[in-house]
Amino acid sequence: MVHFNASDLPDTIAVFPLPGALLLPRSRLPLHIFEPRYLAMFEDALKTPSRLIGMIQPNPVPGRDEAGLHAIGCVGRVTQFSETEDNRYLVTLTGLSRFRVIREVDGFQPYRRCVVSWEGFQSDLGPTNRDEAFDRVAFLTLLERYFATLDLATDWDTLKDAEDELLINSLSMLLDFGAEDKQALLEAPSLRTRRETLVTLMEFALRGGTGEDFMQ
């Protein structure tokens, strides 16, 4: 894996607005790319040394044809891909750093691009984060209840052995929460805050609530 410093990250990046798709630093997101504009985005990314694509949540704006964008997203590097016989791509993005959108820029490309700031997210490029207050037994007990209620299956041995960040970030990305809930998980300032948000979302779902109710 190529190591990046903040100075290596560009001021302008291509962004992929995909509802509910969450990418976090040091985590991997599989993507299925087939729309012509995003095929162009992916092929352009491959032509650059960094191979970066920014993942971001759309933010609907009333009366506007094209959705707005949330203020914060996460950039990832293309670390694996394969092409299908019908010219689609199966891509893996590895998360590098969150970013803040400064403004969207016009251009001749069919996909969207933004001027961004990396300020405030320097820790994303550092070592794996720890959650010193993490009660793993209580967390896994809640997770088991959540999975049983939704009739989900998983490899519990793998979960029990996973490092704090890998466990919390993987669940944040994989569990079926609403787009605004995913945004809250992305914007969490620390691993502990993300874990607390994740716990709140699971507890709320077990009480019969919805993600939309949680965000109000």
Q: Topology of this structure?
A:
Layout: E1 12-17, E2 28-33, H1 36-46, E3 52-56, E4 58-59, E5 68-69, E6 72-83, E7 89-105, E8 112-117, H2 136-149, H3 156-161, H4 164-174, H5 179-187, H6 191-206, H7 211-215
Parallel strand pairs: 1-3
Antiparallel strand pairs: 1-8, 2-7, 3-6, 4-5, 6-7, 7-8
Helix pairs in contact: 2-6, 4-6, 5-6
Keywords: Hydrolase, Protease
Protein name: ATP-dependent protease
Domain Lon N-terminal: 13-206
Key descriptive features of the protein:
2 domains; Archaeosine Trna-guanine Transglycosylase, Chain: A, domain 4; 33% helix; 5-stranded mixed barrel; alpha+beta; single chain; 216 residues
Write a brief caption for the model.
Residues 13-206 form the Lon N-terminal domain. The protein is an alpha+beta fold and 216 residues long.
Question: Your description of this structure?
Answer:
It is a single chain. The chain is of the alpha+beta class and 216 residues long. The chain is 33% helix and 26% strand. It is built from seven helices and eight strands; from the N terminus they run ββαββββββαααααα. It has helices spanning 36-46, 136-149, 156-161, 164-174, 179-187, 191-206, 211-215; strands at residues 12-17, 28-33, 52-56, 58-59, 68-69, 72-83, 89-105, 112-117. The chain has a five-stranded mixed β-barrel with strand order 1-3-6-7-8. The chain has a two-stranded antiparallel sheet with strand order 4-5. The termini are far apart. The model is unreliable at 211-216 (pLDDT under 50).
